[in-house]
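Need residues for this backbone.
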């Protein structure tokens, strides 16, 4: 994971980060499994409650390909 000088492709610990909230449970009440992102170093997750719903908030480098895919949908 090399720093490519632009924040659009920076996935190092110094990269700017962004987050996306994801459902923690499927429609049957089963918890989703969470795996670390292998595309960016600053990835981490936290459990949050928003308007009574339990969510997983994933943080990624804004240049991370997985983050870009998540925010496009």
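Answer:
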């Amino acid at each position: 994971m090399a720093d490519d000088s632009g924040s659009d492709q920076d996935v190092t610990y110094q990269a700017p980060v962004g987050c996306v909230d994801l459902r923690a449970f499927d429609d049957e009440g089963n918890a989703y499994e969470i795996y670390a992102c292998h595309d960016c170093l600053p990835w981490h997750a936290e459990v949050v409650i928003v308007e009574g719903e339990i969510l997983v908030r994933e943080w990624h480098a804004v240049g991370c390909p997985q983050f870009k895919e998540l925010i496009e949908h």
